Amino acid sequence: MANPWAGEVGITLDGQARVAKLTLGALAELEADLGTGTLIELAERFESGRFSARDLLLVIAAGLRGGGWSGGPGDLRTAEIGGGPTGAVRIAAELLARAFTLPGAES
Question: Which of 45, 78, 83, 98 has a CA that sits 20 to 30 A from residue 107's CA?
Answer without folding.
Answer: 83
